[in-house]
Amino acid sequence: MDPKGKVALISGAARVGQSVAEALARRGCHVALTYNRSRESAEKAAGRIRDLGSRALALRADLSTAKGAAAAVEAVRSGLGGPDILIGMASVYGKTPFERLDEEAWHANLDVDLSSAFHLARRAAPIMKKAGSGRIVLFADWLPASGRPRYRGFLPYYVAKAAIVGLTESLALELAPEILVNAIAPGPILKPAGFSAKGDRAVRRATPLGRWGGPEEIARAVMFLVETEFVTGECLRVDGGRHLR
After folding, report:
1. Which residues are designated catalytic?
2. Which of 33, 76, 157, 221 is deepest in the core (most CB within 10 A)?
3. Which architecture does CATH list for 7-244?
4. 3-state DSSP call for residue 10?
5. For 45-69, what is each residue's pLDDT tens digit?
């Protein structure tokens, strides 16, 4: 798909999502970004998109519910048109020891990391089908994409991201041939705020390419999956070879 003149909806468009949004805008794509709390960040990203000559929309949305996802898709449809491209990046990432896991912690991850992707896809797919084409790019994680957990304390997150792989494959089958559905499984992309020097060295040692990837690597992967005409149902690891060790 040529993104020029198309409309993309990006959920959870903070940090890495902003790089994805700008990459799309540089190709002439109009972009809607959803946010939950970080309004200022989303508005700044929308401003950069407009500076690049594309239309932009920043929407506050609770994507953990079907109602919130439906409202977001409708706001994009009425405000920009489309969406022709859905990029599901909304995610909750927090460590919770198993003995402290409860129903609230479980749903905090599953509702955002997994259910939001399903709700958005369910609402956007009929619009894409009617238009005759569409792209859906979801976000998993390098660990479940590699078939095993590695860190304790992230059980709901791991389960949700593993399910994203299954959701991607199932949606790809259900929505073919008009809509191509793929996922990206990031590894060490951005160093977390407050990350220790010791932790940084450990990540670099464990990554064959010896560095953090940076958001531009995710943007490149997204653009490939938007532009491809013959890849669907795949989960692409962007992890600098981290899964090899």
Report:
1. 157
2. 33
3. 3-Layer(aba) Sandwich (3.40)
4. strand
5. 999 999 999 999 999 999 999 999 9
